[in-house]
Automatic annotation (TrEMBL):
Keywords assigned: Lyase
PANTHER family attached to this UniProt entry: HISTIDINE AMMONIA-LYASE (PTHR10362)
SUPFAM superfamilies with a match to the protein in the record: L-aspartase-like (SSF48557)
Protein name, per record: Histidine ammonia-lyase
Length: 487
């Protein structure tokens, strides 16, 4: 079936396709134009390096860039480079991130700027299709090239390391490819692991932000909030795009019911939702735009210029755009999650729900009391992870590589922040649905009714005091489905 195939052509990879290759049972297929683009770059790289010095092909790397590789040592030079750089540390990263890395590197090489021999494209596609993984430790990159991760991949291709068989982690031989020595640096000089993780994180973030609006609307309905803050004239008066998008979605979700508001003015969790959620929508969209541009770029150093029949030594390997965009997205995520925690607080208040405190079965029951603790624990982690990774830097390789943006750490922090946010938002969903059940109310139609029914079919209806951990987990699992109901 066509939808079970992902075609890699070097120009049209999306974050959504990275997600599919990383998490679904799909077949990766190389487009002929991508292979041809890679072939022309490979021919050009060989011709140029035969005529003049080319970094990493005819010279050492880093501070050793001034050292020429003697012709009689050329075959050994690349292998030494791969062995010396395959030195990551710590636990192995998640299999889905490794698959994302392989997908991105495949697409980058097909973009035609690396000069790596094109035969490696089918070898990497075979690895993905067979469900094999190179061992990739968590520590070893700072946003200027995932050298350790890709050197480990190269050693697997060369047969010096075994592939890991996903999902059980057993080691076994797999497809091999004899990378030529001049291609060693060209293969590993990439941020594919960082970009792969970033692609997964921003796709998940955008999905959760859509789900957030649906959950906020359920809470709004449960507390009989006012719709005035979402009115079109309010948005026209302060026309930020993300704010307008959030308000329009709330209007659409609440359109089937017009209960009289219980208060002349609601707390910020409802009244300022468009103004706080809007920046998160914009930040996440911008981050996805940046990551998408990067995963389809020939951001290679040296960059092989086929049309100009030359190579350019440059700084496109530096992923400052990615790190800064992800840093901004996490800061915005903290703000919108703080509002979710605030709405959860109102759902525990009798003045807002008309129920016993904490939605208890009796006046003395604890009910959903613990959900606030869990949500604020998650919020604390999001706050911690919102610290900008770009505030750090590094001076390496005898001073010639004197800056780093730490986009790798920014991508990892975004993955972790999204995971915490998912659980915190799940707490709000549990409380909103429970409040409506206890009130004997439900949205009358539209996507909000569908959301309520979807949650009601899964969440435990019992209101007596009991452990709520399974409820939180089930609610968190529902969020992708709720995201699809976003208007």
């Amino acid at each position: 079936m066509e939808n079970s195939r992902i075609v890699i052509d070097g120009t049209s990879l999306t974050c959504a396709r990275v997600v599919r290759v990383s998490r679904e049972d799909v077949t990766v297929v190389m487009a002929a134009e991508g292979v041809e683009r890679a072939r022309r770059a490979w021919v050009t790289a060989r011709e140029v390096s035969a005529a003049r010095p080319v970094y990493g092909r005819t010279t050492g790397v880093g501070a050793n860039r001034v050292v020429d590789v003697e012709w009689e040592d050329a075959d050994a030079h690349g292998l030494r480079l791969l062995r010396s750089h395959a030195a990551g540390a710590g636990p192995l990263v998640a299999p889905e991130i490794v698959r994302a890395m392989l997908t991105v590197r495949l697409n980058q090489i097909a973009a035609g700027g690396s000069g790596v021999e094109p035969g490696v494209l089918q070898a990497l596609a075979d690895v993905l299709n067979l469900g094999l993984l190179p061992p990739v430790p968590a520590y070893g990159a700072i946003g200027t090239g995932d050298l350790t991760a890709l050197a480990s991949t190269a050693l697997c291709l060369l047969g010096e390391r075994d592939w890991l068989a996903d999902p059980d982690g057993t080691r076994r031989p797999g497809p091999g490819y004899r990378l030529r020595s001049p291609d060693a640096l060209a293969f590993i000089s990439s941020n594919a692991a960082t970009l792969g993780e970033a692609a997964l994180a921003v796709a998940d973030l955008r999905e959760l932000l859509r789900a957030s609006t649906v959950v906020a609307a359920l809470s709004h309905f449960a507390v009989r909030g006012s719709e005035e803050p979402y009115a079109q004239p309010v948005q026209d008066a302060c026309p930020h795009p993300g704010q307008a998008e959030a308000a329009a979605a709330m209007r659409a979700l609440l359109a089937f019911d017009r209960p009289a508001p219980m208060r002349i003015q609601d707390p910020y969790g409802y009244r300022a939702f468009p103004q706080v959620h809007g920046p998160a929508l914009e930040a996440a969209a911008y981050a996805e735009e940046v990551v998408t541009r990067e995963i389809n770029a020939a951001a290679e150093n040296p960059l092989v210029d086929v049309a100009g029949r030359t190579v350019w030594h440059n700084g496109n390997f530096h992923t400052a755009y990615v790190g800064l965009a992800l840093d901004a997205a996490r800061a915005a995520l903290f703000q919108t999650m703080a509002l979710a925690a605030a709405r959860l607080g109102t759902l525990a208040e009798p003045a807002f729900t008309g129920l016993y405190p904490f939605q208890g079965a009796t006046e003395a029951s604890s009910g959903i009391m613990i959900l606030e603790y869990v949500a604020h624990s998650c919020l604390a982690d999001v706050r911690r992870l919102a610290t900008p990774a770009a505030l750090g830097s590094a001076v390496l390789s005898r001073g010639v590589e004197e800056h780093a943006g730490f986009s790798t750490q920014s991508a990892r922090a975004t993955t972790d922040a999204v995971a915490a946010y998912r659980l915190g938002l799940g707490c709000e969903l549990v409380a909103a649905v429970r409040a409506l059940r206890m009130q004997g109310r439900a949205p009358s139609g539209g996507p909000l009714r569908s959301a309520y029914d979807m949650a009601g079919a899964v969440l435990d209806p019992r209101v007596e005091d009991r452990p709520l951990d399974a409820d939180i987990a089930a609610a968190a699992d529902l969020l992708p489905g709720l995201a699809r109901l976003h208007p």
